[in-house]
Amino acid sequence: MEQLLEITGTLVGLLYLWFEYRASIYLWIAGIIMPAIYIFVYYEAGLYADFGINIYYLGAALYGWMMWKYGTFLRKKLLRKEAAQPKELPITRMPLRYLLPLIAVFVVTLLGIAYILINFTDSNVPWLDSFTTALSIVGMWMLARKYVEQWWAWIAVDAVSTGLYIYKGLDFTAALYGLYTIIAIFGYFKWKKMMEISD
């Protein structure tokens, strides 16, 4: 049963990756289904931070859908500008003012999760599990805002996760994250090109 869930999660993950690469809003539908599956897979594998992050992903997927679908409309409303039709959020660069707060969120989250895993679980990979989880929280927020730099976070998360899942014997998931790493590199350049065309 666990392997069937892992294979299903991998297939949904491939769809997610394809939609993300194309900057399609449908990535958020896959983004709801995939974590619902992986909650069980990671718990059984003793990857407790990854288990927890998938609960976060469920909520983040709903936030991401709303931001991508209505983000431009909401921004115009807040700025009291004319906004007759909701327009999908464009791909942009992340403002530099977010860099230090995001680094702070990453460091605090990394240390907090590592402390919990070391002291309250039987995890044998607390630091790697904490690293991928903390950086995923930052990456998800950047993705929801449609910042092109979100790909750099995912390249790091995916590369580290590939090794982590090989170590944990989650072979299908490791293969998926290996593919994620490669596609994330191409995704960065794809989004960058799409952003330049829309400017």
UniProtKB/TrEMBL annotation:
Topological relation to the membrane, as annotated: Multi-pass membrane protein
Pfam families according to UniProt: NMN_transporter
Subcellular location: Cell membrane
MF terms (GO), sorted A to Z: nicotinamide riboside transmembrane transporter activity
Main localization (coarse): membrane
InterPro entries documented for this protein: NMN_transpt_PnuC
Transmembrane segments: 25-43, 55-74, 95-118, 174-191
Function: Required for nicotinamide riboside transport across the inner membrane.
Descriptive protein name: Nicotinamide riboside transporter PnuC
Organism: Bacteroides helcogenes (strain ATCC 35417 / DSM 20613 / JCM 6297 / CCUG 15421 / P 36-108)
